[in-house]
Structures are given as C-alpha cells and as structure tokens.
C-alpha cells in the first residue's frame, strides 16, 4: 500500500506550498508523472529506446563493519520522468557494486515490460567514485552491465555511456562581472566549465545546474565520462544532463545533480530503515552489527517511486 507521512504540526496550519509539495510526492508514488521536458529538447532519449540509470552506494560507519547499501534507479519511459529502483546490501567499504549485473537485468526487464521494447542505448550516471577508483569501477561495472545484457539475449548489445558524477570537491566558480551573475553573486544556472581547469585530454566538465541559495556559494557538479559508446559530443551531453535536472519529482526547480543519481541516493537513505535486529542510531553497537537482516521491498513498489 502506497503511503505518505506528514508531520502533524504542518497539518494544523497547512500552507499552499506545503500541500503542493506533498501532492508532488503522492502523485509519483501512485505511478503518476509530475512534469516532463519537450521531446525536442532531449533527442538522445526520444529518437530511439533509451534507458537512463543512476547508481550510488551508502557506506554505514565503516569502522564497525556494518554493510554498505547499493542502489540503482532507471527511467521507465521515453520522457525519463518515471523511475524504478533496485537495491542490494553488500560488504562494507566495498566501492564496486557487487551485484550490479542482476540489478541492471531487473531494471532492463522492467523497462521492457513498461515500454514493450528493449533499450538500444544506456546512459549510466555513477555517484560516489573518486579519481583513484575510476579504473577499478570502470572495469568491473561495465563488465557487469554487459553481462546483464548478454544474459537476456546473446545478441543484445546496447551502446553504453558511463559517467561519474562528483559533488565532493572544492572547486567553486564566480562570475568575472557581477552583471553576469545572479542576485546572490553566483554564476547563473546552466553554467558549464569545460576548459583550462579540466583534464587535458579526457571527457569531463563542471555543470552548475541549480539556482543559488541565499547565503552560500554554489557547488557545481563534476561529470567525468569514462566510457562513451554513444559518441556524445560535449554540447549534447551537457545539454541533456542540464535538461534532466529540471524534472526532479520532488520540486519544480532545477537541482544540483542529475535526477537518477539523486534518486539512487534517496533509495539508499530509505533502505537503511529496512533493517531488522539493529539500531542504526546506536553508536555503541558492537562489531559484527552488519549481520542484521533486511526486509525486501515489494516488487510492485520498486516499479514506482516509493522513495520520494
């Protein structure tokens, strides 16, 4: 049964904006679509069946041996507005998603059941990877994705683009002229930096996709393309990534990172509450707490955005 929790203190003096935000969540939990972008703005997705995936891993108190939680989300339609999820619990401190092949396989099946066609292209956004881990993640996770496709059909070989998304960095940008900034003095949404400070010969760029808050310097997202079988040019990938940031289901504004990755992060955050026999908030939990069991999310819920 789909559910939505609401704080009682907000219901007694419910404001219009609060009610609207709750309705955005309820709509997608029931399988609805809040917004989408004109297909002409996303030709990569609309010209042929394309699935967009986002992946993240949450590590829980690495010194206590508690398990890590991996999540992958994937778009389910040609408008890239509705997403399904797959979750796994794996060994703590492990940066590579151990069961990625089965997770991708599940999501490809869900895409086919929803659309009636196999995706011919995969755009995979991966969060939580540092530069030193690029090679090991690329080698293992690309192999797992191709194995998942092959297990469905020996001849099924969609083209894959693998992009790492990084938010934990210390790079900031400021407009050289105050007239070119927003009211807070930050760069305008849609600002892309693809020269001078980036890697000299690899495909990477910084993108500031969200409006600035009132009292802070905005942090751009760093996108680093590790594999590109879809032969993106810089403009097409940057534009697609920026446009996707406008269709996050929780709000009606652009967000700072591409939605599939944000959704994967939300799935990981929700999954920690699926454990039984362990008190996550107890810092004095002894070693071996990672033996807690986890309840599985119902298959029907995985196909709608229950995690919003």
UniProtKB/TrEMBL annotation:
Coiled-coil stretches: none
One example GO MF annotation: nucleic acid binding
Signal sequence coordinates: none
Residue span(s) of domain Piwi: 1-276
Gene3D superfamilies noted in UniProt: 3.40.50.2300, Ribonuclease H-like superfamily/Ribonuclease H (3.30.420.10)
SMART domains, per the entry: Piwi
Protein name according to UniProt: Piwi domain-containing protein
Organism expressing this protein natively: Rhizophagus clarus
Pfam annotation, one family: Piwi
């Amino acid at each position: 049964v789909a559910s939505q929790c609401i704080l009682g203190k907000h219901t007694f003096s419910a404001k219009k904006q609060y009610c609207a935000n709750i309705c955005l969540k309820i709509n997608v939990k029931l399988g609805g679509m809040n917004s989408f972008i004109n297909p002409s703005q996303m030709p990569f997705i609309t010209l042929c069946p394309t699935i967009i995936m986002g992946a993240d891993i949450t590590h829980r108190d690495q010194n206590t041996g508690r398990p890590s939680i991996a999540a992958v989300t994937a778009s389910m339609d040609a408008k890239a507005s509705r997403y399904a999820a797959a979750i796994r619990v794996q060994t703590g401190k492990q940066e590579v998603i151990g069961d990625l092949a089965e997770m991708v396989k599940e999501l490809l099946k869900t895409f086919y059941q929803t659309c009636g066609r196999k995706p011919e292209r995969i755009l995979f956004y991966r969060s939580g990877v540092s530069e030193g881990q690029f090679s090991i993640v690329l080698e293992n996770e690309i192999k797992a994705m191709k194995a998942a496709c092959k297990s469905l059909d020996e001849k099924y070989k969609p083209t894959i683009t693998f992009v790492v998304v990084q938010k934990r960095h210390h790079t900031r940008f400021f407009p050289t002229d105050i007239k070119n900034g927003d009211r807070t003095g930050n760069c305008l949404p849609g600002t892309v930096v693809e020269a001078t400070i980036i890697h000299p010969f690899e495909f990477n760029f910084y993108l500031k996709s969200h409006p600035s808050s009132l009292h802070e310097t905005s942090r751009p997202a760093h996108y680093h393309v590790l594999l590109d079988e879809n032969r993106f040019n810089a403009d097409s990938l940057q534009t697609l990534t920026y446009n996707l940031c406008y269709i996050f289901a929780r709000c009606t504004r652009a967000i700072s990172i591409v939605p599939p990755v944000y959704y994967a992060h939300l799935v990981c955050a929700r999954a920690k509450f699926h454990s039984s026999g362990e008190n996550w908030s107890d810092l004095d939990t002894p070693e071996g707490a990672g033996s807690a069991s986890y309840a599985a999310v119902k298959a029907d819920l995985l196909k709608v955005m229950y995690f919003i």
